[in-house]
Amino acid sequence: MTTKKPARPRNTSGPSRPSQPRADTLPTREQLLAALAEQSDIKGKRDLAKVFGIRGDMRRPFKAMLAELEGDGIITRTRKALRRTAALPHVTVLDIPADSDPDDMHAYPAQWNDEEGEKPRVTVLSGRDARVVPAPGDRILARIDAGEDDVPHYTAKAMKILDKPRRGQIGIVRMDDDGARLIPVDRKQKEMRIPLGDLLDASEGDLVEVDVKLSGRLMIPRAKVTKVIGNPMSEGAVSLIAIHNLEIPYNFPASVIREAEEAKEANLKGREDWRDLPLITIDPFDAKDHDDAVYAQPDDDLANPGGHVVYVAIADVAAYVRPGTALDREAYLRGNSVYFPDRVVPMLPERISNELCSLKEGEPRAALAVRMVIGADGKKRSHSFHRILMRSAAKLSYQQAQAAMDGQADDKTGPLLDPILRPLYAAYDAMAAARDARGPLELDLPERKIVLDDKGMVQDIRIPERLVAHRLIEEMMIAANVAAAETLEAKRSPLLYRVHDEPSSEKLQALRDFLGSLDIAIKKSDSVRASDFNGILRQARKAGNVEQVSEMVLRSQAQAVYDNENLGHFGLNLDRYAHFTSPIRRYADLIVHRALVAALGLGDDGLSENEGLRLSGIAQHISATERRAMMAERETADRLLAQFLAAQIGAKFDGRISGVTRSGLFVRLLETGADGFIPASTLGQDFYRYTEDQQAMIGDRTGEKFALGDRVTVRLLEAAPVAGALRFELLSEGARGNPSSVRRNQKRPPKSYGPKGRTKR
Q: Domains in the chain and their CATH numbers?
């Protein structure tokens, strides 16, 4: 008979042991977390090790397990204490890193208290039927699932893609007798003092990022420099302000440069040899990259009398920028190239855009080409896509090509006139007839080009001449884009469309009201076509107010965007349209190239299944980067023009009213295209009310009217180059008519006239 040993008394002086694993095994992750949750007296690794009897050879794997939990954001260390990390809410905002693998995407909470330890890593799920499909670099509102186990494994499904907030305030440092002040880039913000001790190493004219602090009993805002970005004036790059204000990536990471430098020139492997076909490039005279080439010839098919065969070859960027690479992630992040008067921020490094994917004269280059058979009526009868190796026969500028066709050929274009240029123009003539019959929107507003000197300052502002050569290239690119969309639809391939929706009913009604004030009619139906707007513009030309009407027609249009669902292209009057012709500078075109490669079996570098699932998110992202680029280009032009005009304070200019609001008039100068503002309180000798349906300010007493599109004379009163803002004084009188009917239904404020008889408000 054995005697039972008495039970060992429980040690109550330290942490108790939970249900124990065997002495020779490690605790599970769930057991570790349960101990941390249940026993508040566990302070650190040593206490936790005592709880589970960790000793000897078990110490190393035990520490590794704790490190893994900490790395996953599940436990955190505060000084020397260990505890479970705070759980994520069921719905939260997440940031997906730009370098996240699209096939295994992860994200982190956008807001996180560092005292909670490392941010938890969240796996982002996006199934085939997901309504919102995010991509690397996006900020999303997501629904969070922590799983059913004791150890949370966070997964997220995107509910909405959000705009990212801008970085801290930026501005230009100006030194004065009292120290320094900040001139904000945002024209809505006010100047602030910068204490000399808070300048870092910033000096006069530097662009800086600042924190804003309130000081003193009056809580006066003061700026503290946190980062010196550079000096736009000394660098001759005013665009630097917009680049940083809008957070446009402009320096390529080393990994991206390395991939670009390691890329090899393409060869004939897997390609058709088109090197003997005399494709030519026609571009602006100062173009540094050439991503499209064209050629045309009469069709010798007896079934197509008077027809043409048109070839469009586009640089094969997909051969060099493959999904999942550093080059691809950076191209996606940028979305597109951004073109400023003083620089270009390219989507791809120069090794790709200006070398391997530039269709240089006489150099063999990889391309994706479309061969289109055009009837005598200009309509496309058939087309086919080919992956080729080509050699450009000539590099021409628009002006060179047009001069040759106008009888002024030079040594280069003379030999090209009959074999290449005349057949190209003949094919275009047919295609132009088909375009006119189709009836796209004919809103031809002039675009000004800012020419800079060698110091980066404005030397001249020009309106480039619109040549037939420009229209020829445009029409052939449009035809190639349509062919790409048709092919991918026929193959039932995922596709990024370029869509331009019909005008909304609200915008159409606003246009009707405005046109009614000019006695121009538009049909009452909400179902309108581009040809209806063309009819309105023809009436306006006859009436002599085409500028006014063009501005309002432009405002009535929807914004063109990218989408994985087809809405058609209203402006071009096309049922389907995709961007195929500029993969060097637009990520959308690269996606279309990959889709064609995959759909037609042209290589192993086509669109991946994962990319196809993410097209909705990709479309939203690149539409946003396109809007960002347009805003940056416009802001930079405004700053350059304000700087150019700053020396002409007090000068008179002719302009046209380009916008009417309750607060005043926007005026665009005819010569330079610069935009400025006239406050409503400075208008004439009356009280002026905004009349929306007429897009006008109308005087209560006199009926004097200043309307959208009116030509006016103004005096420049103020120029703010950093903000890109101009303020004018109106010198012209408005048209006289009946006093505003608006005042009958509104209380009129008391009159008060200033020194020059102007009503103060």
A: 29-84 (1.10.10), 91-162 (2.40.50), 169-232 (2.40.50), 255-501+560-632 (no CATH), 505-556 (no CATH), 648-736 (2.40.50.140)
